[in-house]
Design a protein that fits this description.
The chain contains five helices and eleven strands. With about 230 residues, it is α+β, with helices and mostly antiparallel strands. It has one domain: Pseudouridine synthase.
């Protein structure tokens, strides 16, 4: 992505929820959640800079990464602002007590309006890609998701997705397996890339029990600003 300096500017951050213990932001395509070998500024650093600036904090800012999204995807990312909140949120996610839903724009209408997909995924670290199998094979892990068709657009179909497991590239891989690759996802069978190098997969909603207040938090991330995504919310 060419606008690296723009990305690392905390004033461009879209904060969806914030209190003393947690912060939820709407990730843009191309943002990496944590630092990697690219050396690009991660979203976690941008959030730290935002907190430091907003609250005029001296010294280092604490921020815990609770979960991640693939670089080309968009949507909700939750961070812990305190060392008290982080292990509680980690436990919540590990025990699958946080409910996440995704929206995906796919090519082709799936075989059924609603379905539960069960595959076995095997990751190849050499090309950072997973392959889906109909039965268990050596080195594979069981992957389960449910989808429903929300809307049919001119050339694409909008799916609502619930994950039961959290495997590498799970949504991308399983949808490709049933002949419905995600728009822009060259790695999993779509014919051409999106202009901004994104894929049309969006972490749409997140619901969980607050790690300190113990109340239910429910957040929805607005879709990206391009016309196709906007048509999904219309």
């Amino acid at each position: 992505m060419s606008n690296k300096s723009n990305r690392s500017n905390p004033s461009n951050l879209q904060v969806l929820y914030e209190d003393n213990h947690i912060i939820v932001v709407n990730k843009r395509a191309g943002d990496i959640v944590q630092g990697d070998k690219t050396g690009d500024t991660p979203l976690s650093d941008v959030v730290k800079a935002y907190i430091k600036d907003k609250y005029n904090k001296p010294g280092n800012v604490y921020l815990g990464v609770v979960h991640r999204l693939d670089r080309p995807t968009t949507g909700l990312v939750l961070f812990a602002k305190t060392s008290k909140a982080l292990p509680r949120l980690n436990k919540l996610f590990a025990e699958k007590k946080a409910t996440k839903t995704y929206w995906a724009l796919v090519k082709n209408t799936p075989p059924k309006q609603n379905d539960r997909l069960v595959h076995w995924l095997r990751k190849n670290p050499k090309n950072n890609k997973s392959t889906a199998f109909d039965r268990e094979v050596e080195g594979s892990k069981k992957a389960i998701l449910s989808y429903s068709v929300l809307k049919s657009l001119d050339n694409f179909v909008l799916l609502h997705i619930n994950l039961e497991t959290g495997r590498h590239h799970q949504i991308r891989c399983q949808l490709s397996k049933i002949g419905c690759p995600i728009k822009g996802d060259l790695k999993y069978g779509f014919s051409r890339s999106n202009k901004d190098a994104s894929i049309s997969l969006h972490a749409r909603t997140l619901e969980f029990i607050h790690p300190v207040k113990k109340e239910t938090i429910s957040i929805t991330a607005p879709v990206p600003s391009d016309s196709l995504w906007q048509a999904c919310e219309a």
